[in-house]
Write a structure and sequence with these properties.
Elements: E1 6-7, E2 15-18, E3 27-28, E4 33-34, E5 44-46, E6 55-58, E7 61-66, E8 75-76, E9 81-82, E10 105-110, E11 116-117, E12 121-126, H1 132-140, E13 155-159, H2 172-185, E14 190-197, H3 205-211, E15 220-224, H4 225-228, H5 231-249, E16 254-258, E17 263-268, H6 279-292, E18 296-299, H7 309-313, H8 319-338, H9 349-353, H10 359-367, E19 375-379, E20 389-393, H11 399-409, E21 413-418, E22 431-435, H12 438-443, E23 450-451, H13 462-477, H14 483-487
Parallel strand pairs: 12-13, 12-14, 14-15, 17-18, 17-21, 18-20, 19-20, 21-22, 22-23
Antiparallel strand pairs: 1-2, 2-5, 3-4, 5-8, 6-7, 7-9, 10-11, 10-16
Length: 503
């Protein structure tokens, strides 16, 4: 079918979205108007006159106020639309949640403690930046053909970061880092882990394990560079330990596991104005299917729900859940104000180039990827998710940092929607990248797992695209390599959220 040149997303909207470039002077008979300027693909134009100070509506929701009088057919963007305080009550009716159960399975690994894994890696994890180089040198000894002796193992993953010392020994900074590292050390996608420290850091090995109730054993080993006698002695000793962990990991075999044991982290990055129209609603449909199968879905990026929080409030399972989410938003407003910023500083330059104008507009599209199931819990960054269904995890809107927290919380799959393009990987967890438009999907084909631009082309509905995403999630959880895994991405994307003073 032929793509419509524009989309009006809700009957109350006073803007529409150009799905193809509309030159100035283009006659649009549906609205009895002529475009007054060139309208780039993905950008908005006014469908009726909007008076200065009056609301601009998209998705049936307030996305900002006109900063000048806007005529029908005018380009609506940063030059005449800005963030403004708003009534959080939704204008558009929301889909009601239809409960039910669906039985699905994937081929995963059943760990000795009963948890399910989608990958079978061995991890080498640094406690501090001072041991990062050693960790990488150890992992390098198991690259390429060096893994031939362990065909059942997906690889050796180095987990390094830029902190671990120069921070207070107590307080939110060290607690957040230790919780994040603990989530990775204990992640079921790691069959075995070696933790390497320098030996004198604030985040020393013993305190790290104690803070997370972790104990050494066959699966978890530790060492420090100072005790080992230096860099190359550590690398040599670590190589021997990793070989032992690999031998243990090699015994693992895939078996049928209910989809109820999948924990899906939702991400979007490099968003454009089609994100909230194609890939995000399609992913929301897939998320709902997973919830109906008994699985867990994690929405994160707290600054990117700002302006769309009412959509989550009305889905809160209990008043406490709503209060917990409001408390996060209050903290973020205070946090950004104390640093001379505000939540409406988002979107990014790339988002703006793609047609997004305000954080309110961006957030409405971002929340769409969570589907319509009830919100059952609100969690701190990297906190272990202890219930199934749809939950929210606090995090910044920075994608690698947010995904790191989701994985530490227990995500064993990531779905990442993108309109501008992304090359994100997330070892030890497979990351599926879903394109919002077919042009980018073709241009960056080696990085994209699923093209949801078919919705714009009207060859597929969001529900059909979502069903395709769900099948892809099961296949990838069963061992199909994602695009980022084929390209080898995921060794550098561990980005823990850093809070507190650097001392």
């Amino acid at each position: 079918m032929t793509r419509m040149p524009f989309l009006q997303l809700h009957p109350t909207d006073n803007v529409a979205i150009a799905t193809t470039a509309l030159p100035a002077g283009t006659r649009l008979s549906d609205f009895a108007l002529t475009t007054a300027a060139d309208i780039p693909v993905g950008h908005k134009f006014a469908t009726t006159a909007i008076v200065k100070g009056h609301p601009v509506l998209k998705y049936g929701h307030f996305i900002g106020a006109a900063t000048q009088d806007i005529a029908a057919g005018d380009h609506v963007h940063t030059h005449n639309l800005a963030f403004a305080e708003h009534d959080a009550s939704p204008v558009a009716a929301r889909r009601a949640w239809t409960p039910g159960s669906e039985e699905h399975f994937f081929q995963g690994y059943r760990r000795p403690d009963g948890r399910a894994a989608t990958r079978n890696y061995v991890g080498v994890i640094a406690t501090v930046n001072c041991s990062a180089t050693v960790v990488r040198k150890v992992a390098e000894r198991f690259s390429g053909d060096a893994m031939a002796s362990w065909p059942q193992v997906d690889g050796v993953v180095p987990v390094t970061h830029a902190t671990g010392c120069g921070l207070a020994s107590t307080g939110p900074g060290i607690e957040l880092l230790q919780r994040t590292l603990g989530g990775f050390i204990d992640h079921p996608n790691f069959a075995g882990v070696l933790v390497i420290g320098l030996g004198c850091e604030v985040n020393d090995v013993e305190r790290l394990l104690q803070s997370q109730n972790l104990t050494t054993g066959r699966r978890l080993r530790t060492m420090t560079i100072q005790d080992a006698g230096g860099t190359m002695k550590t690398v040599s000793m670590a190589e021997g330990i990793v070989r032992e962990l690999l031998e243990e990991a090699e015994t693992a075999r895939r078996e049928p596991i209910p989809a109820s044991e999948l924990v899906l982290g939702l991400q979007c990055g490099g968003s454009d104005s089609f994100s909230g129209i194609t890939a995000n609603p399609a992913l929301g449909f897939a998320a709902d299917k997973l919830v109906r199968a008994g699985g867990t879905v994690i929405l994160a990026e707290t600054p990117e729900i700002y302006g769309a929080e009412s959509l989550l409030f009305e889905r809160a399972e209990t008043p406490q859940v709503r209060e917990d989410l409001q408390r996060l938003l209050d903290w973020w407003e205070d946090h950004t104000a104390r640093h001379g910023a505000s939540l409406d500083n988002n979107p990014s330059p790339g988002n703006i180039a793609g047609g997004l104008t305000t954080i309110l507009e961006k957030s409405l599209g971002a929340v769409a990827k969570s589907g319509s199931s009830p919100l059952r819990g609100v969690y701190r960054y990297a906190e272990r998710i202890d219930r199934r269904g749809f939950v929210f995890m606090d995090s910044p809107g920075y994608d690698p940092c947010s995904a790191t927290g989701e994985i530490a919380s227990g995500a064993n799959m990531i779905c990442f929607t993108t309109g501008r393009g992304s090359v994100f990987g997330a070892k030890p967890v497979p990351s599926l990248k879903l394109a919002t438009n077919s042009e980018m999907a073709r241009r960056m084909a080696e990085d994209i797992d699923c093209d949801c631009g078919s919705i714009l082309e009207r060859t597929e509905t969001p529900q059909e695209s979502g069903a395709r995403i769900f099948d892809l999630i099961l296949a990838t959880a069963s061992g199909r390599k994602s695009a980022s895994e084929v390209s080898g991405f995921g060794d550098l994307e561990f980005v823990p959220w850093q809070l507190g003073a650097v001392l």
